[in-house]
Amino acid sequence: MRCAECKGRLLCGLPACPVMTRFFAQLRLRPAREYAGTAPSVFLGSRGYPSVRGGPLLVDDTDLPPDWIARGLTLEEIVGIRAGTIRGRTLPGRQQEALREIALSARPLDVQVAFDRVPRFDLAFDGTVAPVGLTGEIRRMEVLGNPVVERPVERVTSDTDLGAGDACTLLHRDGVDVYRIARLFTAGLLGRRRRMVPTRWAITAVDDSVFRGLRRALLTAPPMETACLHEATLFGNRILCLLAPGPWRFEMVEAWGRHSLWGGEEDLVVVDGERERKHGYSPLTGAYYSARLAVAEHLNRLGRTGTVLVVRVVSSDYWAPLGTWVVREATRQALREPPVECPSFAGAIPVLAGRLGGYRWLEASALVPEMRSQRRLSDY
Amino acid sequence: MFKAAIDADIFREAIDAIAALVTECRLHADQNGIRTRAVDTANVAMVSMDLKKDAFKSFSATKDELGIDIAKMKNILGMVSKGDLMNMALPEAGHKLEMAFQNYKYSITLLDVNTIRKDPNPPTIELPGKIVITGEALNSAIRAASVVSDKIALGIDPKAQKFFMVAEGDTDHIRLELGRDELVSLSPVEARSLFSLDYLKDMGKVMARAPQVEIALGIDHPVKFSFPIAEGAGRVEYLLAPRIEAE
Q1: B43 touches chain A (CB under 8 A)
Q2: Which of A144, A178, A208 is the C-terminal boundary of a domain?
Q3: Do A140 and A179 fall within a single domain?
Q4: Is the dihedral of CA B221, A243, A286, A210 positive or negative?
Q5: Is residue B114 less than 8 Å (CB to CB) from chain A?
Q6: The complex's ipTM?
Q7: pTM for the predicted model, two decimal places
Q8: Which of A276, A289, A284, A271 is CA-nearest to residue A368?
């Protein structure tokens, strides 16, 4: 049994999980039966849908990944913040108004919460959502103060004739970040028939919906002029982005090295890709949609389209899965870095392979052999 | 100036042939008919289509270039039924193409031709191997191959006097051989090239309707498919660059 599969269920037979105690040891504040402070966000579990339980996230933090990165926090510090975060839980359907106010506010609202008993430490990892350490059943909750709402959010959330997909597109166009959109989505503040959405589903739904809004431009924009190879590393996630001249195509290769989080004793490579349309849910789960969105945003800024290969290599430095935002931010960061220019996709492959230390990770790709072998009419 | 009437079904056939590769094109009109040539965004496949004056019920045009949104046109033509007559008119220096069929009257804004890629020059290549096959048989072979792989080799075995298609997937393999009896004609010159099925699938759907398709092949060279449309009053040509497997 590997730690990655067990995730603290003590299947190893030890009296306490060594991975989990590491997190608990980092708690600065011991949890109490009452909480008075800020609630930056809401969280909904997906188990038992549609009868899902959730509530506010209670922590003195913004709960915004770009903010964590801007502050230069380390992986340990982020896990520390998350381990000390309390996930309030109410029965399904309760406290909806309060949760919507919390989600709606651009600034974290102050709340006063009383729990049934002291929140218990049960850190659960899930590839999509940032981990949360403490869970407390809410007995009473009071929201102090009024939500501060930006104009575009106000407009979209008060329009009940606007579909949720279009709402995501509009918000993104007005510069509202996907983290904020996902929060609104979770609280059921978007769309025609509004309902609460489990957080992990909302994250991917928003990544996908915003991408769909950008796709039209990707299918008609002129192609890149040269191939560009970008790279960045964030918390042991190495992202290489190759954007090359050609029609919109996207492929992502995810490589979990030996002894990385989900890698275990062997190397693990997963690949997925698309052309004009994506069919079905990606085997790469939320990471695929997060990376694809970051790439689409970049191409959109350039006013170009291209054939894109994203390679994510995860090393053992990434010892705690923080959620797909890591992939999104790592890809965004990579695309902000100045690229190495190559004449074409095929010409960039040796450079890419050189950076990866060989073709090992690229063997699973379908795009690489195709781009290497496909001739163009201009070659004749 | 452009004014024409045509059997809507024939026009649809011509547009579908272009739509298999591109979403927009420059359509050239002159007193002899209309024609276009376009390559896909990846510069891998080319389509040439020409429709002579005889394909139309009535036709009059001066030399002009029309920027056509093929994807939109395809959607519009999806509504026509067999035997409908389509009337088209574009006034001198106009930007809106009037299209009328049944009781519908469309006014389609043309694309600015300067925003569309210039007509590509066809590469000068010798393709000695020639086969003539029914469109239906060709499309069936393409569909069969796409079940097991994403690429297909087309070739001629001059000794056995056979046209063959081979597709190899990771685990599966398919081979189809057609002798002289099953083909309309075959010139026994050795040929073999590998092609992406992604492109062939879209072309195959169009070619399935053609009674006869002429295939021209070489060794690791592009393939050319040509077939008549509008009962011989027009012609479509596809050119597809090969894939060369690196050693």
Answers
A1: yes
A2: A144
A3: no
A4: negative
A5: no
A6: 0.83
A7: 0.78
A8: A271
